[in-house]
Amino acid sequence: MSKLKIAVLVSGSGSNLQSIIDACACGSLEAVVRIVISDQKEAFGLERARKNGIRAEFVDVKSFSGREDHEKACAALIDSEGCGLVCFAGYMRLVTGWFVRKYPGKIMNIHPALLPAFPGAHAHRDALRYGAKVSGCTVHFIDEQMDSGPIILQSAVKVLEGDTEETLGKRVLEQEHLAYPQAIKLFLEGRLEILGRKVRVK
Ligand code: GAR
Questions:
Q1: Amino acid 28: pLDDT
Q2: Whole-prediction pTM value?
Q3: 133, 144, 141, 71: which is closest to 111 by C-alpha?
């Protein structure tokens, strides 16, 4: 069976990207990361890609007249590598319906909270301010809204007395690094069926 080719989109550190690269390298995922794309020139995720011999591309939003044009440039790169799955890993951009429709059921995202609680860029701060006793992470398919779309899997993490954004974030990130490869494994085994808002794991 040929390996699933994955495109990973990042805006920052890329530790989730690393967990995917590692899962491919150790053979627990029958997949290969073919390209890493970032909207941030200095994203460490691009550096991680280069260190692992993976094609790394910065696609500057400012070079395009609109979001869709930027996405078309990203899609051309994704398609040039024949990727069958697109993983957002700390990619801090909303995509348009055009991009969502281009890869139906083939774009995943990870978010550091138990969605639909605490979407957005400050999930840990929001969870702590709210007084949540449990947080965690969610891997989901993408739709046009932020941190929305059918949920593939979630992993819960207890909020501890005295937790800060950093301490909670660190424990959640450990779960993210397990959850994302797990979700990809379910995808490549053909075990994910999207039924409206729900994902059935076969
Ligand atoms: C991760 O915690 C990811 O869940 C989050 O950004 C971080 C990226 O870390 N994504 C979101 O908040 C999406 N709304 P990484 O670059 O080290 O993988």
A1: 95
A2: 0.97
A3: 141
Answer yes or no: 111 catalytic. Answer: yes
> From the CA of 1, how far away is ligand 1's center (Å)?
31
Looking at the structure, tell me whether residues 145 and 115 fall in a common domain: yes
Phi, psi of 36 (to 5 degrees): -120, 130
Instruction: List C-alpha distances in Å: 25 to 7, 86, 89, 108, 185.
Output: 15, 18, 18, 20, 14
pLDDT, tens digit, 9 for 90 and up, residues 44-89: 999 999 999 999 999 999 999 999 999 999 999 999 999 999 999 9
For ligand 1, say whether the CB of 192 is within 6 Å of any of its atoms: no
64 and 39 fall within a common domain: yes
Report how far ligand 1's centroid is from the alpha carbon of 16 (Å). Answer: 7
